[in-house]
Amino acid sequence: LCVEFRQDEEDVLIGLLCAMAAPTQPLIDLQIAGLRQHCAMVWDAKGRQMIVDDVEQSLLADKDSRIQDIGKQLFPFTSKGMYGKYFNGRNNVDFKNPFTVLELEELKGRKHLQQVVLLQLIYQIQQAMFLGDRDRKKIVVIDEAWSLLTEGDVAKFIEHGYRRFRKYNGAAITITQSVNDLYASPTGRAIAENSANSFLLGQKPDAINMIKREGRLALSEGGFSILKSVHTIRGQYSEIFFQTEQGTGVGRLTVDNFSKLLYSTTPKDVSDINIYIGQGLNTAEAINAVMRDRGVAA
Q: Which positions fall inside the TraG P-loop domain (predicted)?
């Protein structure tokens, strides 16, 4: 676990353990009180060496079957459980790097694990945003955000963040497939209302018509006509519609051939690069090799 059992962080740790033990139905007040008591006892005995196994064993030894149930429900996160390898042992995650990327793609098929990991990441981001140096500019970027906008504590964090980040010299960028994704939840609507800038790639006509009909972008008829003209020509450029406090317009993004491959998610591009990486080349060498194969200049 990434959280120390200090008084000001006790709620965070208890929240994580509750998420581990009760992913669908919340623990009752008596169980939460018992969990707090056992965590405090284990911390006094083990200190920073405390792991989920220790909490589990302490709970199982309680005379109250309701407290024992928490210990049983924690099993997946113990060293013998399917998720134990992620939570038992020395913490090796370093959030001190100025640019940190947290990839959660592999968790999409494991909702319980994803829920707990997201709670930990929220805690870490909150620490950096709200308790870090206010003189330092900070930004959190959330990609594929539509899948998180209805996820309980995650949604609350995103919504509260959009209301508060500016006060702490911070900012947030939320990336979704469509503007309409934002309006499918209260959190998304709060994001839209508190966003100073909006950037849109090409949208389908039906999506633009819905945006206009529902009043989701404050644009004139001419503005919507411009938005409908935004398009991408694969391999050449992407147009981006922007609406900011300084004005509205369209920009065109062009990148060099190396960067196109570096950031490409096209299956063939990824496959061709990985073939060379599998032969021992690093990423840059693999991209250059693919470009040579295709007769493309750098």
A: 55-292
Instruction: Show the domain range for 36.
Output: 1-90
One digit per residue, the tens of pLDDT, for the chain of length 298 reads: 444 555 556 777 888 899 899 988 889 999 999 999 999 999 889 887 889 999 999 999 999 999 999 999 999 999 999 999 888 777 677 777 888 888 888 887 888 898 888 888 888 888 788 887 888 899 989 887 667 777 666 777 788 788 888 888 999 898 888 888 888 888 888 888 888 899 999 989 999 999 999 988 888 999 999 999 999 998 889 999 999 988 899 999 999 999 999 999 899 999 999 999 999 999 999 999 999 999 987 6
Other Cβ atoms within 10 Å of 97 Cβ, number: 7
* Region for 247 from its dihedrals, namely left if φ exceeds 0, alpha if ψ lies in -120 to 50, beta otherwise: left
Residue 71 lies in a domain: yes
- Together in a domain, 76 and 117: no
Task: Give the global pTM.
Answer: 0.72
Angle at 76 between CA 75 and CA 82, to 5 degrees: 135
Number of domains within the chain = 3
User: Are 112 and 76 contacting, i.e. CB atoms less than 8 angstroms apart?
Assistant: yes
